[in-house]
Amino acid sequence: MAKFKKVVKKKKAAVIESTAQEDEAVKKRSSSKNFRLLKGFKDILPTEKKYWNLVETKAANLAVGFDYGEIKLPVLEETALFSRSVGKDSDIVRKEMFTFTDQSNINVSLRPEATAQIARAYIEHGMLNLSQPVKLYYFGPMFRREKPQSGRLRQFYQFGFESLGSEGAVVDAQLIALANKFFSQIGLKDAVTIQVNSIGCTECRTEYKQELINYFKPKKKLLCDDCKKRLLKNPLRILDCKEAGCQSLLAEAPQLLDWIDEDCKEHFMKVLEHLDQLEIAYNLNPYLVRGLDYYTRTVFEIWPIDKTGSQVALGGGGRYDNLVELLGGRPTPAAGFSAGVERIIMLLKEKNIEIKQENIPEVFLAQIGAQAKAKAMKLLEKLQEEDIMVAESFAKDSLKSQLELANKRNVKFTLILGQKEVLDGTILLREMEGGVQEVIDLEKIIPELKKKLGRT
Ligand code: AMP
Predict the structure, then answer these.
(1) Contact 390, 380 (CB under 8 A)
(2) Among protein residues, the one whose CA lies closest to atom 11 of ligand 1
(3) For the CA atoms of the chain, what is the radius of gyration?
(4) How does strand 283-284 pair with strand 192-198?
(5) Closest ligand 1 atom, residue 343 Cα
(6) What pLDDT, in 10s, does the model give residues 192-221?
(7) Which residues line ligand 1 (CB under 6 A)?
């Protein structure tokens, strides 16, 4: 015991040391003039917007189509909510949460995931009194203090679908169908595979865990450092370790599917039958276990087809039949799925998926001289009221630089208001492609422009 305490102390000291080093680096930077992003955090710039729009609109439309109501959850919760549901031995709870004690001495954490919150909200708002299953959709940032690298951030966005109150295999299959539809709709149908497994219920897993420990114990030397630790606390996670040494031991390892009981097996068979009926291709993956404690029975992940490794899963989910009860609610079977937006966007870019740019300005409004500028500002408001997308650069005075900008923005038309036009009550309408200019009565410019834009 004393030895164990010493090891824990050493480990804690190492974590504290590395955190202290990072804190020191941040402090140094903060005292200099230039602030920089914290490690693992990202700004999402307007140039990225088309990707975010695509992911968010497709996910939100599917939520409507599949009858999921959107729930907005807070980013801060009591730490115990996550440690109890995700599991105190999981990587997330052991080392990845942003946790602090607030001014009221409450131990709080930035949410590392949302399923625990969904279960909390289901209980807190008495949703068991609604017609079941209750289907909820969310979209928002999650926080995990992982070692940042490509595809692994400390703040990342997830959207998710959760269905609470039904144990039917059809729910699991529908969630997988939903995920499949999402990836098809964003153009990644042929770029991803669906991995499926069943990890049984708590009872069948207990026996299996012991069997796994018996198998790996004599081979402990061959396991990676992480799996050596997992052997005692979380042996199932050895199955999805990506280290070559650990993987080479898997072929002979006892298979989870041989250990799950008849009910769990039957449930899983039904899920697969539904998927076959829906003609959804999947890969039966006996090593898929997911890293969170609350999962039971069906688990699944979406992987890019041509990549392997621990940072590649685009999304994942499964059944969590015990979670609501674990958090103090009535026993409520449930299942869900979440996906990581940044990783999906990385794949969209890698596969050169073409995305229609939305909200591109149709018209540029140029002005020359103080009076024209004032009139142009008023005209801009009118154009906006008519939902015409306008770009401008009122801070510029030279017509040449404004026209250059209009060209850069790829607009079809530029409106030009100069001193002469102000006096005459007219405006110039320039067609950018041919350079043809027409003088138009200022009063008539909106209907005229609408006609040219094909809007009557
Ligand atoms: P998980 O709940 O860990 O299975 O995460 C679900 C999805 O969220 C993953 O498949 C990833 O797409 C995404 N994700 C998880 N952790 C991170 C991270 N640190 N950085 C970026 N995306 C992540």
Answers:
(1) yes
(2) 340
(3) 28
(4) parallel
(5) 12
(6) 999 999 999 999 888 899 999 999 999 999
(7) 113, 144, 146, 151-153, 156, 158, 313-316, 338-340, 342-343
Instruction: List all residues 6 or more positions away from 88 whose beta carbon is below 8 Å from its beta carbon.
Output: 94
CA gap 24, 6 in Å, rounded? 26
* Chain center to CA of 261: 34
Question: Phi and psi of 155, rounded to 5°?
Answer: -120, 125
Distance of CA 47 to the CA centre of its chain: 18
Residue where the block lists tokens 């625990």: 116
Contacts of 40 (CB under 8 A, 6+ apart): 145, 146, 148, 152, 153, 154, 155
- pLDDT above 90: residue 102: yes
Mutate which of 91, 115, 152, 156 to test ligand 1's pocket (most atoms within 8 Å of Cβ)?
Answer: 156
pLDDT band for position 128 (50/70/90)?
A: very high
Helical packing angle, 202-216 and 225-233, nearest 10°: 130
Query: In this predicted structure, what is the pLDDT of residue 33?
Result: 72
